[in-house]
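This entry is set out below.
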Amino acid sequence: MRILNETLAVQATVPLLTPDEVRAVRSSLTEMDSQAGIDVHGWEQAHRAFHRGLVAHAGSRLLKLVSQLSDHAERYRRAYITSDARAFLAGSVDHHKICEAAESGDVATAGNATAEHLAHTALALIGNRAPEHNPVLIRGALRSVLSEQARR
């Protein structure tokens, strides 16, 4: 659900971001990088601000749904980042790609990078915690939202 809805929200928001909003997203990313592996709570606050900044113009109903889905995923996100030393680095690469696309106004790349980031995190967590689980819904959501160009 988060892959589908947050990707849509990012695609709706990126064209409407003001320069100040883009700077705030970049600032949240810088804060995430400085807190990675040091302060999980500080990183989570910056992470939350980063993702919320990227969906700020999606409309109140979609924004509420995306926030609820993110809040629900927090416990899984914390389990992932505290149990896998590579998690911060993998997430950082994804977050930088999303931010750069948003800064340049590239809606398709920002949306695709968001979907891929959310799927990477979910698949890594499932692989670590329940490797026998077949994440068919995650893969289906990813296929549904990736642009035709990204599928090639």
Summary: Residues 15 and 107 are 7 Å apart (CA to CA). Residues 2-146 form a domain with the Four Helix Bundle (Hemerythrin (Met), subunit A) fold (CATH 1.20.120.530). The longest helix spans residues 60-83. Helices lie at 2-13, 19-35, 40-53, 60-83, 87-104, 107-129, 136-145, 148-151.
